[in-house]
Amino acid sequence: MKFEPVIGLEIHVELLTKTKIFCGCSTTFGEEPNTQTCPVCLGLPGSRPLLNKKAVEFAIKASLALNCDIVDYTTFDRKNYFYADLPKGYQISQYFFPTGTNGYVDINVNGENKRVRIHQLHLEEDTGKLLHAGSIIDSPYSRVDFNRAGVPLIEIVTEADIRSAEEARIFLQKLRTILLYTEVSDCKMEEGSMRCDANISIRPEGSEVFGIRTELKNMNSFKAVHKGIEYEIKRQKKVLKSDSEVIPETRHWNESKGITTAMRSKFKASDYRCFPDPNVLPVKNSSEWIDNIKKSLPELPDEKIERFVKEYNLPQYDAEVLTGSKELAEFYDQTVSLYPNPKFVSNWVMGELIGLLNARKEDISCCEITPTNLAKLFQLIDNQTISGKIAKTVFEEMFETGKDPETIVKEKNLVQISDAGELEKIVEMVIESNPGPVADFKGGKKKALGFLVGQIMKETKGQANPQAVNKLLAEKLK
User: Fold this and answer.
1) What's this model's pTM, rounded to 2 decimal places?
2) What structural domains and CATH numbers belong to the chain?
3) DSSP-assigned states of every residue in 201-237
4) Which of 120, 186, 364, 418 has CB atoms 3.0–4.6 Å from 327's, for a disulfide?
Protein backbone atom coordinates (compact mmCIF):
# COMPACT_ATOMS: atom_id res chain seq x y z
CA MET A 1 0.00 0.00 0.00
CA LYS A 2 1.23 3.48 -0.87
CA PHE A 3 0.87 6.21 1.74
CA GLU A 4 0.50 9.99 1.40
CA PRO A 5 1.84 12.39 4.05
CA VAL A 6 -0.46 15.15 5.27
CA ILE A 7 1.38 18.02 6.97
CA GLY A 8 0.35 21.27 8.62
CA LEU A 9 2.77 23.72 10.21
CA GLU A 10 2.57 25.99 13.24
CA ILE A 11 5.21 28.69 13.13
CA HIS A 12 6.03 30.91 16.10
CA VAL A 13 7.68 34.21 15.21
CA GLU A 14 8.89 36.73 17.80
CA LEU A 15 8.02 40.30 16.83
CA LEU A 16 10.65 43.00 16.54
CA THR A 17 9.23 45.29 19.22
CA LYS A 18 11.52 47.01 21.70
CA THR A 19 9.40 45.99 24.69
CA LYS A 20 7.32 42.99 25.72
CA ILE A 21 3.66 42.52 24.85
CA PHE A 22 2.16 43.43 28.25
CA CYS A 23 4.94 45.39 30.01
CA GLY A 24 7.85 47.76 29.36
CA CYS A 25 10.67 45.21 29.78
CA SER A 26 13.27 45.06 27.00
CA THR A 27 13.18 42.28 24.38
CA THR A 28 16.95 42.41 23.66
CA PHE A 29 18.32 38.92 22.98
CA GLY A 30 21.26 37.44 24.87
CA GLU A 31 21.17 39.46 28.10
CA GLU A 32 22.00 37.87 31.46
CA PRO A 33 19.18 35.53 32.63
CA ASN A 34 16.27 37.16 34.46
CA THR A 35 17.58 40.73 34.06
CA GLN A 36 14.70 41.78 31.78
CA THR A 37 11.75 41.10 34.06
CA CYS A 38 9.22 43.02 36.14
CA PRO A 39 6.16 42.23 38.30
CA VAL A 40 3.95 41.96 35.18
CA CYS A 41 6.00 39.42 33.19
CA LEU A 42 6.83 37.57 36.43
CA GLY A 43 3.10 37.26 37.15
CA LEU A 44 3.33 38.77 40.64
CA PRO A 45 0.07 39.40 42.52
CA GLY A 46 -1.43 42.84 41.94
CA SER A 47 0.33 43.48 38.62
CA ARG A 48 -1.76 44.09 35.51
CA PRO A 49 -0.90 43.77 31.82
CA LEU A 50 -1.05 46.71 29.38
CA LEU A 51 -1.17 45.76 25.68
CA ASN A 52 1.70 46.85 23.40
CA LYS A 53 0.07 48.65 20.43
CA LYS A 54 3.12 48.05 18.19
CA ALA A 55 2.73 44.28 18.64
CA VAL A 56 -0.88 44.49 17.41
CA GLU A 57 0.23 46.62 14.44
CA PHE A 58 2.95 44.08 13.51
CA ALA A 59 0.44 41.21 13.75
CA ILE A 60 -1.91 43.04 11.35
CA LYS A 61 0.99 43.87 9.03
CA ALA A 62 2.11 40.23 8.88
CA SER A 63 -1.48 39.09 8.30
CA LEU A 64 -1.88 41.48 5.37
CA ALA A 65 1.41 40.30 3.84
CA LEU A 66 0.09 36.73 4.06
CA ASN A 67 -3.18 37.66 2.30
CA CYS A 68 -5.30 37.17 5.43
CA ASP A 69 -8.66 38.71 6.29
CA ILE A 70 -8.29 40.99 9.31
CA VAL A 71 -10.78 40.86 12.18
CA ASP A 72 -12.22 44.19 13.33
CA TYR A 73 -12.62 42.99 16.92
CA THR A 74 -10.46 40.69 19.01
CA THR A 75 -10.03 39.56 22.60
CA PHE A 76 -7.04 38.17 24.46
CA ASP A 77 -7.67 34.85 26.17
CA ARG A 78 -6.09 32.68 28.85
CA LYS A 79 -4.91 29.18 27.92
CA ASN A 80 -5.07 27.46 31.25
CA TYR A 81 -3.13 24.23 30.96
CA PHE A 82 0.04 24.37 33.04
CA TYR A 83 3.06 26.21 31.63
CA ALA A 84 6.22 25.37 33.59
CA ASP A 85 8.07 28.18 31.82
CA LEU A 86 5.50 30.95 32.40
CA PRO A 87 5.37 32.28 35.96
CA LYS A 88 1.61 32.98 35.78
CA GLY A 89 1.05 29.29 35.00
CA TYR A 90 -1.03 30.20 31.92
CA GLN A 91 -0.49 31.93 28.57
CA ILE A 92 -2.35 34.93 27.16
CA SER A 93 -3.22 34.42 23.50
CA GLN A 94 -5.84 35.29 20.85
CA TYR A 95 -7.82 32.06 20.95
CA PHE A 96 -11.36 33.02 19.95
CA PHE A 97 -10.69 35.94 17.58
CA PRO A 98 -7.28 35.64 15.84
CA THR A 99 -5.92 38.74 14.06
CA GLY A 100 -5.85 37.18 10.59
CA THR A 101 -7.68 34.28 8.94
CA ASN A 102 -8.05 32.63 5.52
CA GLY A 103 -4.68 33.66 4.07
CA TYR A 104 -2.29 31.91 1.73
CA VAL A 105 1.29 31.69 0.48
CA ASP A 106 2.15 30.56 -3.04
CA ILE A 107 5.27 28.41 -3.43
CA ASN A 108 7.06 26.78 -6.34
CA VAL A 109 7.82 23.06 -6.00
CA ASN A 110 9.77 21.37 -8.82
CA GLY A 111 8.60 23.98 -11.32
CA GLU A 112 4.94 23.79 -10.29
CA ASN A 113 3.04 26.46 -8.36
CA LYS A 114 1.25 25.41 -5.18
CA ARG A 115 -0.87 27.36 -2.74
CA VAL A 116 -0.56 26.68 0.99
CA ARG A 117 -3.50 28.13 2.89
CA ILE A 118 -3.08 29.98 6.18
CA HIS A 119 -5.77 28.96 8.66
CA GLN A 120 -5.02 31.80 11.06
CA LEU A 121 -2.44 34.18 12.50
CA HIS A 122 -2.81 35.12 16.13
CA LEU A 123 -0.85 37.16 18.67
CA GLU A 124 0.37 35.80 22.01
CA GLU A 125 3.12 36.03 24.60
CA ASP A 126 6.25 33.89 24.42
CA THR A 127 7.28 31.58 27.24
CA GLY A 128 10.42 31.60 29.34
CA LYS A 129 13.35 29.34 28.50
CA LEU A 130 14.05 26.15 30.44
CA LEU A 131 17.74 25.31 30.89
CA HIS A 132 18.28 21.65 31.79
CA ALA A 133 21.45 20.32 33.41
CA GLY A 134 22.75 17.25 35.21
CA SER A 135 21.54 13.69 34.62
CA ILE A 136 19.13 11.26 36.22
CA ILE A 137 21.98 9.78 38.26
CA ASP A 138 23.92 12.98 38.88
CA SER A 139 21.43 15.43 40.48
CA PRO A 140 19.32 16.66 37.55
CA TYR A 141 17.91 20.17 37.73
CA SER A 142 16.31 22.81 35.53
CA ARG A 143 16.63 26.58 35.61
CA VAL A 144 14.24 29.08 34.05
CA ASP A 145 15.25 32.28 32.27
CA PHE A 146 12.23 34.60 32.18
CA ASN A 147 13.81 37.21 29.90
CA ARG A 148 11.87 35.72 26.98
CA ALA A 149 8.61 35.40 28.92
CA GLY A 150 6.19 37.97 27.58
CA VAL A 151 8.05 38.72 24.34
CA PRO A 152 5.31 39.27 21.71
CA LEU A 153 5.02 36.63 19.04
CA ILE A 154 2.68 35.63 16.28
CA GLU A 155 1.67 32.04 15.65
CA ILE A 156 0.96 31.22 12.00
CA VAL A 157 -1.12 28.07 11.52
CA THR A 158 -1.37 26.53 8.04
CA GLU A 159 -4.03 24.22 6.72
CA ALA A 160 -2.93 20.61 6.17
CA ASP A 161 -1.97 21.37 2.55
CA ILE A 162 1.66 20.25 2.61
CA ARG A 163 2.53 16.80 1.25
CA SER A 164 6.28 16.37 1.76
CA ALA A 165 9.24 17.47 3.86
CA GLU A 166 10.60 19.38 0.86
CA GLU A 167 7.34 21.32 0.44
CA ALA A 168 7.47 22.20 4.15
CA ARG A 169 11.03 23.51 3.80
CA ILE A 170 10.19 25.59 0.71
CA PHE A 171 7.09 27.04 2.39
CA LEU A 172 9.01 27.94 5.53
CA GLN A 173 11.76 29.66 3.54
CA LYS A 174 9.18 31.65 1.56
CA LEU A 175 7.33 32.61 4.75
CA ARG A 176 10.56 33.80 6.38
CA THR A 177 11.40 35.91 3.33
CA ILE A 178 7.97 37.58 3.40
CA LEU A 179 8.23 38.37 7.12
CA LEU A 180 11.74 39.77 6.69
CA TYR A 181 10.46 42.06 3.92
CA THR A 182 7.79 43.43 6.28
CA GLU A 183 10.41 43.95 9.06
CA VAL A 184 8.04 42.65 11.75
CA SER A 185 10.70 40.13 12.91
CA ASP A 186 14.38 39.36 12.39
CA CYS A 187 13.39 35.66 11.99
CA LYS A 188 16.72 34.48 13.43
CA MET A 189 16.07 30.77 13.81
CA GLU A 190 19.37 30.24 15.62
CA GLU A 191 18.18 32.67 18.34
CA GLY A 192 14.72 31.13 18.57
CA SER A 193 12.88 34.11 17.12
CA MET A 194 11.39 31.78 14.50
CA ARG A 195 10.45 28.24 15.50
CA CYS A 196 8.39 25.60 13.74
CA ASP A 197 6.13 22.77 14.90
CA ALA A 198 4.79 20.25 12.38
CA ASN A 199 1.58 18.20 12.58
CA ILE A 200 2.20 15.04 10.58
CA SER A 201 -0.02 12.13 9.61
CA ILE A 202 -0.12 9.66 6.74
CA ARG A 203 -3.02 8.06 4.94
CA PRO A 204 -3.50 5.58 2.07
CA GLU A 205 -2.91 7.30 -1.26
CA GLY A 206 -6.22 8.56 -2.66
CA SER A 207 -8.00 8.59 0.71
CA GLU A 208 -9.76 11.77 1.86
CA VAL A 209 -9.72 10.80 5.53
CA PHE A 210 -6.86 12.15 7.63
CA GLY A 211 -4.71 9.72 9.60
CA ILE A 212 -3.77 10.01 13.27
CA ARG A 213 -1.33 12.88 13.64
CA THR A 214 1.67 13.53 15.79
CA GLU A 215 3.13 16.95 16.54
CA LEU A 216 6.85 17.53 16.10
CA LYS A 217 7.94 20.41 18.35
CA ASN A 218 10.34 23.35 18.22
CA MET A 219 12.46 22.80 15.11
CA ASN A 220 14.65 25.86 14.63
CA SER A 221 16.33 25.38 11.25
CA PHE A 222 15.24 24.52 7.71
CA LYS A 223 17.45 21.44 7.88
CA ALA A 224 15.80 20.28 11.12
CA VAL A 225 12.32 20.79 9.65
CA HIS A 226 13.19 18.79 6.54
CA LYS A 227 14.94 15.93 8.34
CA GLY A 228 12.49 15.78 11.26
CA ILE A 229 9.44 15.53 9.00
CA GLU A 230 11.13 12.97 6.74
CA TYR A 231 11.99 10.79 9.73
CA GLU A 232 8.48 11.03 11.21
CA ILE A 233 6.88 10.07 7.87
CA LYS A 234 9.09 6.98 7.64
CA ARG A 235 8.41 6.09 11.30
CA GLN A 236 4.63 6.31 10.87
CA LYS A 237 4.73 4.21 7.67
CA LYS A 238 6.67 1.55 9.54
CA VAL A 239 4.09 1.59 12.36
CA LEU A 240 1.15 1.18 9.98
CA LYS A 241 2.85 -1.54 7.94
CA SER A 242 3.32 -3.54 11.15
CA ASP A 243 -0.48 -3.43 11.70
CA SER A 244 -0.11 -1.10 14.68
CA GLU A 245 -1.68 2.33 15.26
CA VAL A 246 0.08 5.67 15.39
CA ILE A 247 -0.23 7.16 18.87
CA PRO A 248 -1.43 10.78 18.94
CA GLU A 249 1.37 12.48 20.82
CA THR A 250 3.81 15.36 20.88
CA ARG A 251 7.30 14.35 19.80
CA HIS A 252 10.76 15.92 19.95
CA TRP A 253 13.29 16.04 17.10
CA ASN A 254 16.68 14.87 18.40
CA GLU A 255 19.14 16.63 16.09
CA SER A 256 22.23 14.71 17.25
CA LYS A 257 20.64 11.26 16.88
CA GLY A 258 18.50 12.09 13.85
CA ILE A 259 15.32 10.61 15.40
CA THR A 260 12.04 11.75 16.96
CA THR A 261 11.19 10.78 20.53
CA ALA A 262 7.90 10.87 22.47
CA MET A 263 7.39 13.81 24.87
CA ARG A 264 3.75 13.68 26.01
CA SER A 265 0.27 12.69 24.89
CA LYS A 266 -1.42 15.09 22.48
CA PHE A 267 -3.68 17.81 23.91
CA LYS A 268 -7.16 18.36 22.58
CA ALA A 269 -8.46 21.91 22.09
CA SER A 270 -10.69 21.46 25.14
CA ASP A 271 -7.59 20.88 27.27
CA TYR A 272 -6.66 24.57 26.89
CA ARG A 273 -9.74 25.63 28.97
CA CYS A 274 -9.70 29.11 27.36
CA PHE A 275 -11.68 32.15 28.45
CA PRO A 276 -11.24 35.91 27.79
CA ASP A 277 -8.59 37.43 30.03
CA PRO A 278 -10.38 39.93 32.34
CA ASN A 279 -7.25 42.13 32.64
CA VAL A 280 -6.72 42.75 28.90
CA LEU A 281 -9.38 44.84 27.20
CA PRO A 282 -10.80 43.78 23.83
CA VAL A 283 -9.30 45.56 20.80
CA LYS A 284 -11.18 47.13 17.90
CA ASN A 285 -9.12 47.30 14.71
CA SER A 286 -10.56 50.26 12.81
CA SER A 287 -10.70 50.08 9.01
CA GLU A 288 -8.70 53.34 8.86
CA TRP A 289 -5.89 51.85 10.95
CA ILE A 290 -5.83 48.66 8.86
CA ASP A 291 -5.71 50.71 5.64
CA ASN A 292 -2.79 52.78 6.93
CA ILE A 293 -0.87 49.62 7.85
CA LYS A 294 -1.64 48.18 4.40
CA LYS A 295 -0.19 51.31 2.76
CA SER A 296 3.01 50.85 4.77
CA LEU A 297 3.65 47.38 3.32
CA PRO A 298 6.76 47.21 1.13
CA GLU A 299 6.89 45.64 -2.30
CA LEU A 300 6.72 41.94 -1.34
CA PRO A 301 8.78 39.11 -2.91
CA ASP A 302 6.20 37.93 -5.48
CA GLU A 303 5.54 41.51 -6.60
CA LYS A 304 9.26 42.18 -6.88
CA ILE A 305 9.83 39.01 -8.92
CA GLU A 306 7.07 40.02 -11.32
CA ARG A 307 8.55 43.51 -11.70
CA PHE A 308 12.10 42.23 -12.27
CA VAL A 309 10.87 39.91 -15.02
CA LYS A 310 8.75 42.58 -16.73
CA GLU A 311 10.83 45.72 -16.17
CA TYR A 312 14.33 44.23 -16.42
CA ASN A 313 13.50 41.33 -18.76
CA LEU A 314 15.24 38.91 -16.39
CA PRO A 315 14.71 35.14 -16.44
CA GLN A 316 12.37 33.91 -13.70
CA TYR A 317 15.25 32.11 -11.99
CA ASP A 318 17.36 35.28 -11.78
CA ALA A 319 14.43 37.25 -10.37
CA GLU A 320 13.77 34.62 -7.69
CA VAL A 321 17.43 34.53 -6.59
CA LEU A 322 17.78 38.33 -6.51
CA THR A 323 14.63 38.75 -4.40
CA GLY A 324 15.71 36.07 -1.91
CA SER A 325 16.28 38.88 0.60
CA LYS A 326 15.02 42.43 0.73
CA GLU A 327 18.55 43.80 1.10
CA LEU A 328 19.87 41.87 -1.91
CA ALA A 329 16.94 43.02 -4.07
CA GLU A 330 17.51 46.65 -3.05
CA PHE A 331 21.25 46.33 -3.76
CA TYR A 332 20.46 45.02 -7.25
CA ASP A 333 17.82 47.69 -7.90
CA GLN A 334 20.19 50.49 -6.90
CA THR A 335 23.04 49.11 -9.01
CA VAL A 336 20.83 48.86 -12.10
CA SER A 337 19.66 52.45 -11.58
CA LEU A 338 23.34 53.52 -11.82
CA TYR A 339 24.38 51.05 -14.52
CA PRO A 340 21.31 50.20 -16.65
CA ASN A 341 22.31 46.79 -17.93
CA PRO A 342 20.05 44.48 -15.83
CA LYS A 343 21.26 41.09 -17.06
CA PHE A 344 24.95 42.04 -16.83
CA VAL A 345 24.42 43.27 -13.25
CA SER A 346 22.40 40.14 -12.45
CA ASN A 347 25.23 37.88 -13.65
CA TRP A 348 27.77 39.65 -11.43
CA VAL A 349 25.51 39.76 -8.35
CA MET A 350 24.44 36.11 -8.67
CA GLY A 351 27.91 34.88 -9.59
CA GLU A 352 30.68 36.93 -8.01
CA LEU A 353 28.87 38.64 -5.13
CA ILE A 354 26.70 35.76 -3.87
CA GLY A 355 29.64 33.39 -4.40
CA LEU A 356 31.88 35.41 -2.05
CA LEU A 357 29.09 35.89 0.49
CA ASN A 358 28.33 32.16 0.56
CA ALA A 359 32.02 31.27 0.87
CA ARG A 360 32.23 33.44 3.98
CA LYS A 361 28.76 32.43 5.26
CA GLU A 362 27.68 36.07 5.28
CA ASP A 363 24.70 37.96 3.89
CA ILE A 364 24.49 41.18 1.88
CA SER A 365 24.24 43.30 5.05
CA CYS A 366 27.92 42.45 5.74
CA CYS A 367 29.06 43.43 2.24
CA GLU A 368 31.59 46.28 1.94
CA ILE A 369 30.76 46.87 -1.74
CA THR A 370 28.23 49.62 -2.47
CA PRO A 371 25.99 49.80 -5.56
CA THR A 372 27.82 53.00 -6.53
CA ASN A 373 31.24 51.34 -6.51
CA LEU A 374 29.97 48.25 -8.33
CA ALA A 375 28.58 50.49 -11.09
CA LYS A 376 31.97 52.26 -11.27
CA LEU A 377 33.68 48.89 -11.71
CA PHE A 378 31.43 48.06 -14.67
CA GLN A 379 32.19 51.45 -16.22
CA LEU A 380 35.94 50.72 -15.97
CA ILE A 381 35.31 47.55 -17.99
CA ASP A 382 33.24 49.46 -20.56
CA ASN A 383 35.88 52.13 -21.14
CA GLN A 384 38.57 49.42 -21.35
CA THR A 385 40.50 50.72 -18.36
CA ILE A 386 40.53 47.12 -17.06
CA SER A 387 39.67 43.76 -18.57
CA GLY A 388 36.84 41.52 -17.38
CA LYS A 389 39.39 39.18 -15.83
CA ILE A 390 41.14 41.96 -13.94
CA ALA A 391 37.72 43.25 -12.87
CA LYS A 392 37.19 40.06 -10.87
CA THR A 393 40.48 40.67 -9.03
CA VAL A 394 39.43 44.25 -8.32
CA PHE A 395 35.99 43.04 -7.19
CA GLU A 396 37.54 40.70 -4.61
CA GLU A 397 39.66 43.56 -3.27
CA MET A 398 36.56 45.77 -3.08
CA PHE A 399 34.77 43.00 -1.18
CA GLU A 400 37.58 42.76 1.37
CA THR A 401 38.36 46.44 1.86
CA GLY A 402 35.35 48.47 0.70
CA LYS A 403 37.64 50.65 -1.44
CA ASP A 404 36.38 52.14 -4.68
CA PRO A 405 37.59 50.42 -7.88
CA GLU A 406 39.57 53.39 -9.25
CA THR A 407 41.73 53.50 -6.09
CA ILE A 408 42.43 49.75 -6.28
CA VAL A 409 43.32 49.88 -9.98
CA LYS A 410 45.71 52.79 -9.35
CA GLU A 411 47.32 51.29 -6.21
CA LYS A 412 47.93 47.90 -7.83
CA ASN A 413 48.75 49.22 -11.31
CA LEU A 414 46.04 47.12 -12.96
CA VAL A 415 45.29 49.40 -15.91
CA GLN A 416 44.65 47.38 -19.05
CA ILE A 417 47.38 47.37 -21.72
CA SER A 418 45.80 48.57 -24.97
CA ASP A 419 48.81 50.20 -26.62
CA ALA A 420 49.26 48.47 -29.98
CA GLY A 421 53.03 48.92 -30.05
CA GLU A 422 53.54 47.44 -26.60
CA LEU A 423 51.19 44.53 -27.29
CA GLU A 424 52.79 43.80 -30.67
CA LYS A 425 56.17 43.18 -29.06
CA ILE A 426 54.65 40.75 -26.55
CA VAL A 427 52.65 38.92 -29.26
CA GLU A 428 55.77 38.49 -31.41
CA MET A 429 57.77 37.21 -28.43
CA VAL A 430 55.08 34.62 -27.58
CA ILE A 431 54.86 33.44 -31.20
CA GLU A 432 58.63 33.05 -31.36
CA SER A 433 58.75 31.19 -28.01
CA ASN A 434 56.01 28.69 -28.96
CA PRO A 435 56.77 27.23 -32.41
CA GLY A 436 54.86 24.02 -31.64
CA PRO A 437 51.44 25.61 -30.92
CA VAL A 438 52.01 28.02 -33.85
CA ALA A 439 52.55 25.04 -36.17
CA ASP A 440 49.51 23.30 -34.71
CA PHE A 441 47.36 26.36 -35.42
CA LYS A 442 48.62 26.59 -38.98
CA GLY A 443 47.88 22.88 -39.32
CA GLY A 444 44.22 23.52 -38.50
CA LYS A 445 44.13 23.01 -34.71
CA LYS A 446 42.08 26.02 -33.60
CA LYS A 447 42.56 25.24 -29.90
CA ALA A 448 46.20 26.26 -30.24
CA LEU A 449 45.07 29.86 -30.63
CA GLY A 450 43.55 29.80 -27.16
CA PHE A 451 46.84 28.52 -25.76
CA LEU A 452 48.76 31.39 -27.35
CA VAL A 453 46.28 33.96 -26.06
CA GLY A 454 46.68 32.45 -22.59
CA GLN A 455 50.47 32.83 -22.82
CA ILE A 456 50.12 36.49 -23.75
CA MET A 457 47.74 37.11 -20.84
CA LYS A 458 50.13 35.31 -18.53
CA GLU A 459 53.02 37.44 -19.75
CA THR A 460 51.02 40.64 -19.10
CA LYS A 461 49.59 39.35 -15.78
CA GLY A 462 46.11 39.50 -17.25
CA GLN A 463 46.34 43.18 -18.10
CA ALA A 464 46.40 42.88 -21.90
CA ASN A 465 43.28 43.99 -23.77
CA PRO A 466 41.77 40.65 -24.90
CA GLN A 467 40.19 42.08 -28.07
CA ALA A 468 43.44 43.77 -29.12
CA VAL A 469 45.42 40.60 -28.35
CA ASN A 470 43.15 38.40 -30.47
CA LYS A 471 43.27 40.84 -33.38
CA LEU A 472 47.06 41.23 -33.31
CA LEU A 473 47.67 37.50 -32.86
CA ALA A 474 45.44 36.63 -35.81
CA GLU A 475 47.24 39.14 -38.03
CA LYS A 476 50.70 37.89 -37.01
CA LEU A 477 49.81 34.22 -37.49
CA LYS A 478 48.60 34.93 -41.04
Assistant:
1) 0.86
2) 3-289 (no CATH), 298-411 (no CATH), 420-477 (1.10.10.410)
3) EEEETT--S----EEEEEE-SHHHHHHHHHHHHHHHH
4) 364
